[in-house]
Amino acid sequence: MKIFIVTILLLSIQTKAAIWTATREWTDSDEIAYSEFITTQVGPDFFKILGSPFSELKLDCADAAYALRIYYSKTNGLPFKIVDRKVTNDDRRFDYIADENKKLAAFIFDVVDNNGTENLSGNDTYPIAIQSIRGGDVFMYKIESAPGTFSRHTYLIKNVNSNGTFDVLYSTQARRDAGMPMNRIKQYSFANPRWVPNHTAIGDKNTWGFKRMRLPQQRGISLDKIPNANFEQYDLAIQQGDQFFEYVKNQRTTIKETATEAMARMFEFLCHELNDRVEIVSMAQTVRANTNNVCMDPVTFDTYSTPSRDGGILGSYNKIFSQVEKYKQTGEWVTVDANTRTVAEGIFNPQRSIATNQLIKNSCNFQNRQGLNTDLALFYEALSQGRVSSHPNDSLFNRWGILSATTAPLTSCPRY
Fold first, then answer.
1. Which of 198, 293, 296, 307 has the most Cβ atoms closer than 10 angstroms to its Cβ?
2. Domain-terminating residue out of 196, 226, 252
3. What is the value of pTM for the model shown?
Protein backbone atom coordinates (compact mmCIF):
# COMPACT_ATOMS: atom_id res chain seq x y z
CA MET A 1 0.00 0.00 0.00
CA LYS A 2 2.86 2.40 0.89
CA ILE A 3 4.56 1.68 -2.45
CA PHE A 4 1.29 2.41 -4.25
CA ILE A 5 0.85 5.73 -2.43
CA VAL A 6 4.46 6.78 -3.12
CA THR A 7 4.00 5.94 -6.81
CA ILE A 8 0.87 8.11 -7.02
CA LEU A 9 2.69 11.01 -5.35
CA LEU A 10 5.65 10.74 -7.71
CA LEU A 11 3.39 10.71 -10.76
CA SER A 12 1.56 13.75 -9.41
CA ILE A 13 4.83 15.63 -8.97
CA GLN A 14 6.03 14.67 -12.47
CA THR A 15 2.87 15.89 -14.16
CA LYS A 16 3.20 19.37 -12.61
CA ALA A 17 5.16 21.03 -15.40
CA ALA A 18 5.49 24.47 -16.90
CA ILE A 19 4.18 25.19 -20.37
CA TRP A 20 7.87 25.18 -21.23
CA THR A 21 11.11 25.76 -19.34
CA ALA A 22 13.11 28.83 -20.32
CA THR A 23 16.84 28.16 -20.58
CA ARG A 24 17.98 31.81 -20.81
CA GLU A 25 16.82 35.42 -20.73
CA TRP A 26 16.01 37.52 -23.79
CA THR A 27 18.91 39.59 -25.18
CA ASP A 28 19.19 42.21 -27.93
CA SER A 29 20.39 39.41 -30.23
CA ASP A 30 17.22 37.45 -29.52
CA GLU A 31 15.15 40.54 -30.36
CA ILE A 32 16.91 40.83 -33.72
CA ALA A 33 16.41 37.10 -34.35
CA TYR A 34 12.71 37.46 -33.52
CA SER A 35 12.47 40.31 -36.02
CA GLU A 36 14.08 38.13 -38.70
CA PHE A 37 11.66 35.31 -37.82
CA ILE A 38 8.67 37.59 -38.46
CA THR A 39 10.19 38.99 -41.65
CA THR A 40 11.28 35.70 -43.22
CA GLN A 41 8.97 33.01 -41.84
CA VAL A 42 5.62 34.46 -40.80
CA GLY A 43 2.83 34.88 -43.32
CA PRO A 44 -0.94 35.40 -42.98
CA ASP A 45 -1.57 31.66 -42.56
CA PHE A 46 1.40 30.86 -40.31
CA PHE A 47 -0.65 29.03 -37.68
CA LYS A 48 -2.88 27.38 -40.30
CA ILE A 49 0.19 25.84 -41.95
CA LEU A 50 1.39 24.46 -38.60
CA GLY A 51 -1.73 22.29 -38.56
CA SER A 52 -3.72 21.06 -35.59
CA PRO A 53 -4.01 22.21 -32.86
CA PHE A 54 -2.61 25.61 -33.92
CA SER A 55 -4.77 25.82 -37.03
CA GLU A 56 -7.85 25.99 -34.78
CA LEU A 57 -6.68 29.22 -33.16
CA LYS A 58 -8.88 32.22 -33.98
CA LEU A 59 -6.85 35.42 -33.94
CA ASP A 60 -7.56 39.08 -34.48
CA CYS A 61 -4.97 41.82 -34.82
CA ALA A 62 -3.59 42.02 -31.27
CA ASP A 63 -4.01 38.26 -30.73
CA ALA A 64 -1.50 37.54 -33.50
CA ALA A 65 1.18 39.67 -31.81
CA TYR A 66 0.80 37.73 -28.56
CA ALA A 67 0.50 34.33 -30.25
CA LEU A 68 3.62 34.74 -32.38
CA ARG A 69 5.66 35.97 -29.42
CA ILE A 70 4.56 32.95 -27.37
CA TYR A 71 5.33 30.50 -30.17
CA TYR A 72 8.78 31.97 -30.81
CA SER A 73 9.61 32.06 -27.10
CA LYS A 74 8.68 28.43 -26.66
CA THR A 75 10.58 27.15 -29.68
CA ASN A 76 13.72 29.04 -28.65
CA GLY A 77 13.71 28.32 -24.92
CA LEU A 78 12.98 31.93 -23.99
CA PRO A 79 10.65 33.15 -21.22
CA PHE A 80 7.28 34.72 -21.91
CA LYS A 81 5.70 37.13 -19.45
CA ILE A 82 3.02 39.77 -19.77
CA VAL A 83 1.57 42.16 -17.23
CA ASP A 84 -2.05 41.07 -17.27
CA ARG A 85 -2.86 38.28 -14.79
CA LYS A 86 0.88 37.65 -14.34
CA VAL A 87 0.83 35.15 -17.20
CA THR A 88 4.15 33.38 -17.80
CA ASN A 89 5.58 30.27 -19.45
CA ASP A 90 5.67 28.72 -15.94
CA ASP A 91 1.85 28.61 -15.87
CA ARG A 92 0.68 25.35 -14.25
CA ARG A 93 -3.00 25.59 -15.15
CA PHE A 94 -2.64 23.34 -18.19
CA ASP A 95 -0.91 20.40 -16.52
CA TYR A 96 -3.87 18.19 -17.38
CA ILE A 97 -2.94 18.36 -21.08
CA ALA A 98 -0.30 15.75 -21.93
CA ASP A 99 0.36 16.68 -25.56
CA GLU A 100 2.92 19.52 -25.69
CA ASN A 101 1.44 21.19 -28.79
CA LYS A 102 -2.08 21.06 -27.39
CA LYS A 103 -0.83 22.49 -24.12
CA LEU A 104 0.91 25.34 -25.96
CA ALA A 105 -2.16 26.02 -28.11
CA ALA A 106 -4.36 26.09 -24.99
CA PHE A 107 -1.99 28.57 -23.38
CA ILE A 108 -2.04 30.79 -26.49
CA PHE A 109 -5.83 30.66 -26.56
CA ASP A 110 -6.03 31.66 -22.91
CA VAL A 111 -3.67 34.61 -23.39
CA VAL A 112 -5.40 36.01 -26.49
CA ASP A 113 -8.86 35.41 -25.03
CA ASN A 114 -8.03 37.61 -22.04
CA ASN A 115 -5.76 40.24 -23.61
CA GLY A 116 -6.50 42.61 -26.48
CA THR A 117 -5.22 45.80 -28.03
CA GLU A 118 -5.71 47.82 -24.84
CA ASN A 119 -3.49 45.45 -22.85
CA LEU A 120 -0.96 45.12 -25.64
CA SER A 121 -0.67 48.87 -26.03
CA GLY A 122 -0.91 49.91 -22.40
CA ASN A 123 0.99 47.15 -20.60
CA ASP A 124 3.08 44.96 -22.85
CA THR A 125 4.78 47.27 -25.36
CA TYR A 126 6.87 50.44 -25.36
CA PRO A 127 7.27 53.24 -27.94
CA ILE A 128 10.28 53.19 -30.26
CA ALA A 129 12.26 55.54 -32.49
CA ILE A 130 11.11 55.84 -36.11
CA GLN A 131 14.50 54.75 -37.43
CA SER A 132 14.43 51.60 -35.30
CA ILE A 133 11.08 50.24 -36.59
CA ARG A 134 11.57 46.68 -37.87
CA GLY A 135 9.83 43.37 -38.39
CA GLY A 136 8.02 42.17 -35.26
CA ASP A 137 7.10 45.66 -34.10
CA VAL A 138 3.47 46.81 -34.07
CA PHE A 139 1.51 49.91 -34.89
CA MET A 140 -1.63 50.51 -32.82
CA TYR A 141 -4.26 53.20 -32.85
CA LYS A 142 -7.45 54.07 -31.00
CA ILE A 143 -9.97 56.52 -32.41
CA GLU A 144 -13.48 57.56 -31.51
CA SER A 145 -15.64 56.09 -34.28
CA ALA A 146 -18.85 57.45 -32.72
CA PRO A 147 -19.57 59.47 -29.57
CA GLY A 148 -18.38 57.31 -26.69
CA THR A 149 -17.44 54.41 -29.01
CA PHE A 150 -13.83 53.64 -29.87
CA SER A 151 -12.14 51.61 -32.58
CA ARG A 152 -8.81 49.98 -31.81
CA HIS A 153 -6.52 48.25 -34.21
CA THR A 154 -3.11 46.60 -34.35
CA TYR A 155 -0.87 46.10 -37.37
CA LEU A 156 2.01 43.63 -37.05
CA ILE A 157 4.95 44.96 -39.05
CA LYS A 158 6.52 42.21 -41.12
CA ASN A 159 9.13 44.43 -42.77
CA VAL A 160 10.00 47.99 -43.74
CA ASN A 161 10.25 48.44 -47.52
CA SER A 162 12.92 50.44 -49.32
CA ASN A 163 10.32 53.01 -50.42
CA GLY A 164 9.36 53.74 -46.80
CA THR A 165 6.12 51.77 -46.82
CA PHE A 166 5.42 48.85 -44.49
CA ASP A 167 4.74 45.18 -45.14
CA VAL A 168 2.04 44.46 -42.55
CA LEU A 169 -0.09 41.62 -41.24
CA TYR A 170 -3.45 42.30 -39.64
CA SER A 171 -6.83 40.80 -38.89
CA THR A 172 -10.31 41.85 -37.79
CA GLN A 173 -12.89 40.62 -35.34
CA ALA A 174 -14.99 39.33 -38.23
CA ARG A 175 -12.08 37.35 -39.73
CA ARG A 176 -11.25 36.00 -36.28
CA ASP A 177 -14.82 34.89 -35.64
CA ALA A 178 -14.87 33.17 -39.03
CA GLY A 179 -11.60 31.35 -38.27
CA MET A 180 -9.91 33.01 -41.24
CA PRO A 181 -6.14 33.61 -41.46
CA MET A 182 -4.60 37.04 -41.10
CA ASN A 183 -4.52 39.44 -44.01
CA ARG A 184 -1.46 41.09 -45.53
CA ILE A 185 -0.66 44.36 -47.30
CA LYS A 186 2.83 44.33 -48.76
CA GLN A 187 3.07 48.10 -49.24
CA TYR A 188 1.11 49.87 -46.55
CA SER A 189 1.41 53.57 -45.86
CA PHE A 190 -0.16 54.61 -42.59
CA ALA A 191 -2.37 57.68 -42.91
CA ASN A 192 -4.21 60.26 -40.83
CA PRO A 193 -6.80 60.39 -39.39
CA ARG A 194 -6.35 56.79 -38.24
CA TRP A 195 -4.15 58.00 -35.41
CA VAL A 196 -3.69 61.45 -33.92
CA PRO A 197 -1.43 61.51 -30.84
CA ASN A 198 -3.20 64.36 -29.07
CA HIS A 199 -6.68 62.97 -29.76
CA THR A 200 -8.84 62.83 -26.63
CA ALA A 201 -9.52 59.13 -27.28
CA ILE A 202 -5.92 58.27 -26.61
CA GLY A 203 -5.44 59.43 -23.04
CA ASP A 204 -1.83 58.51 -22.32
CA LYS A 205 -0.14 59.44 -25.58
CA ASN A 206 2.64 56.91 -24.99
CA THR A 207 0.14 54.06 -25.25
CA TRP A 208 -0.38 54.16 -29.02
CA GLY A 209 1.69 54.40 -32.18
CA PHE A 210 4.77 52.41 -33.20
CA LYS A 211 5.61 50.00 -30.38
CA ARG A 212 7.76 46.97 -29.51
CA MET A 213 7.02 44.10 -27.12
CA ARG A 214 8.53 44.45 -23.67
CA LEU A 215 11.12 41.87 -22.69
CA PRO A 216 9.98 39.65 -19.80
CA GLN A 217 12.46 41.33 -17.47
CA GLN A 218 10.88 44.71 -18.36
CA ARG A 219 7.41 43.65 -17.25
CA GLY A 220 5.71 46.28 -15.13
CA ILE A 221 8.55 48.82 -15.03
CA SER A 222 8.02 52.43 -16.11
CA LEU A 223 8.59 53.31 -19.75
CA ASP A 224 11.44 55.72 -18.99
CA LYS A 225 13.39 52.84 -17.43
CA ILE A 226 13.34 50.76 -20.65
CA PRO A 227 16.64 51.31 -22.51
CA ASN A 228 15.26 51.36 -26.08
CA ALA A 229 12.09 53.31 -25.34
CA ASN A 230 11.86 56.47 -27.42
CA PHE A 231 9.09 59.08 -27.39
CA GLU A 232 10.03 61.18 -30.43
CA GLN A 233 7.03 60.03 -32.52
CA TYR A 234 4.57 61.84 -30.27
CA ASP A 235 6.24 65.24 -30.52
CA LEU A 236 6.85 64.71 -34.24
CA ALA A 237 3.22 63.77 -34.82
CA ILE A 238 2.09 67.02 -33.24
CA GLN A 239 4.71 69.04 -35.15
CA GLN A 240 3.98 67.38 -38.50
CA GLY A 241 0.19 67.24 -38.17
CA ASP A 242 -1.43 65.62 -41.20
CA GLN A 243 2.01 65.09 -42.71
CA PHE A 244 3.26 62.86 -39.89
CA PHE A 245 3.01 59.56 -41.73
CA GLU A 246 4.47 61.10 -44.87
CA TYR A 247 7.35 62.21 -42.65
CA VAL A 248 7.73 58.64 -41.35
CA LYS A 249 7.73 57.30 -44.91
CA ASN A 250 10.39 59.78 -45.99
CA GLN A 251 12.52 58.97 -42.96
CA ARG A 252 12.52 55.26 -43.84
CA THR A 253 12.94 55.63 -47.60
CA THR A 254 16.21 54.29 -48.97
CA ILE A 255 15.21 54.05 -52.65
CA LYS A 256 12.95 56.76 -54.07
CA GLU A 257 10.05 55.35 -56.06
CA THR A 258 9.05 56.74 -59.44
CA ALA A 259 5.77 58.54 -60.01
CA THR A 260 4.45 55.47 -61.88
CA GLU A 261 5.44 53.17 -58.99
CA ALA A 262 3.86 55.48 -56.43
CA MET A 263 0.57 55.68 -58.32
CA ALA A 264 0.50 51.91 -58.84
CA ARG A 265 1.09 51.37 -55.12
CA MET A 266 -1.67 53.79 -54.11
CA PHE A 267 -4.20 52.21 -56.47
CA GLU A 268 -3.25 48.72 -55.34
CA PHE A 269 -3.82 49.74 -51.74
CA LEU A 270 -7.17 51.40 -52.52
CA CYS A 271 -8.33 48.26 -54.30
CA HIS A 272 -7.19 46.17 -51.33
CA GLU A 273 -9.22 48.38 -48.98
CA LEU A 274 -12.31 48.05 -51.16
CA ASN A 275 -12.01 44.27 -51.32
CA ASP A 276 -11.63 44.20 -47.54
CA ARG A 277 -14.85 46.19 -47.36
CA VAL A 278 -16.57 43.70 -49.67
CA GLU A 279 -15.57 40.95 -47.24
CA ILE A 280 -16.90 42.67 -44.12
CA VAL A 281 -20.12 43.82 -45.80
CA SER A 282 -20.70 40.29 -47.13
CA MET A 283 -20.32 38.89 -43.63
CA ALA A 284 -22.78 41.46 -42.31
CA GLN A 285 -25.30 40.54 -45.00
CA THR A 286 -24.97 36.88 -43.99
CA VAL A 287 -25.70 37.81 -40.36
CA ARG A 288 -28.74 39.80 -41.51
CA ALA A 289 -30.04 36.87 -43.54
CA ASN A 290 -29.50 34.37 -40.71
CA THR A 291 -31.27 36.55 -38.12
CA ASN A 292 -34.07 37.93 -40.30
CA ASN A 293 -32.33 41.31 -40.01
CA VAL A 294 -32.82 41.60 -36.27
CA CYS A 295 -31.02 44.68 -34.93
CA MET A 296 -27.46 43.76 -34.04
CA ASP A 297 -26.29 44.01 -30.44
CA PRO A 298 -23.37 46.33 -29.62
CA VAL A 299 -20.70 43.64 -29.98
CA THR A 300 -21.99 42.38 -33.33
CA PHE A 301 -22.49 45.94 -34.53
CA ASP A 302 -18.88 46.79 -33.68
CA THR A 303 -17.67 43.72 -35.55
CA TYR A 304 -19.46 44.52 -38.82
CA SER A 305 -19.85 48.31 -38.92
CA THR A 306 -17.41 50.28 -41.07
CA PRO A 307 -17.17 53.96 -40.03
CA SER A 308 -13.40 54.10 -39.57
CA ARG A 309 -12.86 51.81 -42.56
CA ASP A 310 -14.97 54.09 -44.76
CA GLY A 311 -13.09 57.12 -43.48
CA GLY A 312 -9.82 55.42 -44.36
CA ILE A 313 -11.01 54.63 -47.89
CA LEU A 314 -12.09 58.22 -48.44
CA GLY A 315 -8.67 59.26 -47.17
CA SER A 316 -7.02 56.99 -49.75
CA TYR A 317 -9.06 58.58 -52.54
CA ASN A 318 -8.09 62.05 -51.32
CA LYS A 319 -4.45 61.01 -51.11
CA ILE A 320 -4.53 59.89 -54.76
CA PHE A 321 -6.13 63.20 -55.75
CA SER A 322 -3.47 65.17 -53.86
CA GLN A 323 -0.68 63.10 -55.38
CA VAL A 324 -2.00 63.72 -58.88
CA GLU A 325 -2.10 67.47 -58.22
CA LYS A 326 1.42 67.35 -56.82
CA TYR A 327 2.77 65.50 -59.87
CA LYS A 328 1.06 67.96 -62.17
CA GLN A 329 2.76 70.85 -60.38
CA THR A 330 6.19 69.20 -60.51
CA GLY A 331 5.81 68.04 -64.11
CA GLU A 332 6.13 64.35 -63.16
CA TRP A 333 2.57 63.58 -64.20
CA VAL A 334 3.58 63.13 -67.85
CA THR A 335 5.95 60.32 -66.81
CA VAL A 336 3.06 58.19 -65.50
CA ASP A 337 1.65 55.66 -67.98
CA ALA A 338 -1.35 56.84 -69.96
CA ASN A 339 -3.94 54.37 -68.60
CA THR A 340 -3.09 55.23 -64.99
CA ARG A 341 -3.41 58.93 -65.75
CA THR A 342 -6.80 58.36 -67.38
CA VAL A 343 -8.10 56.34 -64.43
CA ALA A 344 -6.73 58.73 -61.80
CA GLU A 345 -8.23 61.79 -63.46
CA GLY A 346 -11.46 60.03 -64.44
CA ILE A 347 -12.34 59.02 -60.88
CA PHE A 348 -12.67 62.65 -59.87
CA ASN A 349 -14.29 63.89 -63.10
CA PRO A 350 -18.05 63.18 -63.46
CA GLN A 351 -17.83 63.86 -67.23
CA ARG A 352 -16.23 60.59 -68.28
CA SER A 353 -16.12 58.93 -71.67
CA ILE A 354 -17.28 55.35 -72.21
CA ALA A 355 -13.65 54.31 -72.73
CA THR A 356 -12.60 55.93 -69.45
CA ASN A 357 -15.45 54.25 -67.58
CA GLN A 358 -14.30 50.89 -68.90
CA LEU A 359 -10.71 51.50 -67.82
CA ILE A 360 -11.93 52.44 -64.35
CA LYS A 361 -14.08 49.31 -64.10
CA ASN A 362 -11.14 47.13 -65.17
CA SER A 363 -8.70 48.76 -62.75
CA CYS A 364 -10.22 47.10 -59.65
CA ASN A 365 -12.76 44.28 -59.75
CA PHE A 366 -14.14 44.66 -56.23
CA GLN A 367 -17.65 45.34 -57.59
CA ASN A 368 -17.81 41.96 -59.33
CA ARG A 369 -17.64 40.09 -56.04
CA GLN A 370 -21.14 41.20 -55.04
CA GLY A 371 -22.62 41.98 -58.45
CA LEU A 372 -22.69 45.68 -57.61
CA ASN A 373 -23.42 48.42 -60.09
CA THR A 374 -20.45 50.48 -58.93
CA ASP A 375 -16.75 51.02 -59.57
CA LEU A 376 -13.88 53.14 -58.27
CA ALA A 377 -15.44 56.34 -59.60
CA LEU A 378 -19.06 55.65 -58.64
CA PHE A 379 -18.11 54.56 -55.15
CA TYR A 380 -16.01 57.70 -54.68
CA GLU A 381 -19.01 59.82 -55.67
CA ALA A 382 -21.27 57.95 -53.24
CA LEU A 383 -18.74 58.09 -50.44
CA SER A 384 -17.90 61.77 -50.84
CA GLN A 385 -21.60 62.66 -51.06
CA GLY A 386 -22.45 60.79 -47.84
CA ARG A 387 -24.62 58.11 -49.48
CA VAL A 388 -22.57 55.16 -48.21
CA SER A 389 -23.86 53.52 -45.02
CA SER A 390 -21.50 52.09 -42.43
CA HIS A 391 -24.43 50.52 -40.52
CA PRO A 392 -24.34 46.68 -40.75
CA ASN A 393 -28.15 46.39 -40.60
CA ASP A 394 -28.56 48.39 -43.80
CA SER A 395 -29.23 46.82 -47.20
CA LEU A 396 -26.43 45.96 -49.59
CA PHE A 397 -27.41 48.88 -51.83
CA ASN A 398 -27.29 51.36 -48.97
CA ARG A 399 -23.97 49.96 -47.77
CA TRP A 400 -22.47 50.82 -51.16
CA GLY A 401 -24.45 53.98 -51.87
CA ILE A 402 -25.84 52.70 -55.17
CA LEU A 403 -27.55 55.66 -56.83
CA SER A 404 -30.71 53.77 -57.78
CA ALA A 405 -31.25 52.79 -54.15
CA THR A 406 -30.97 56.21 -52.54
CA THR A 407 -34.72 56.31 -51.96
CA ALA A 408 -34.63 52.99 -50.08
CA PRO A 409 -35.22 53.52 -46.32
CA LEU A 410 -32.23 53.24 -44.04
CA THR A 411 -32.36 50.94 -41.03
CA SER A 412 -34.00 52.16 -37.85
CA CYS A 413 -31.70 49.94 -35.77
CA PRO A 414 -29.58 51.75 -33.17
CA ARG A 415 -26.02 52.83 -33.88
CA TYR A 416 -23.45 52.07 -31.18
1. 296
2. 252
3. 0.85
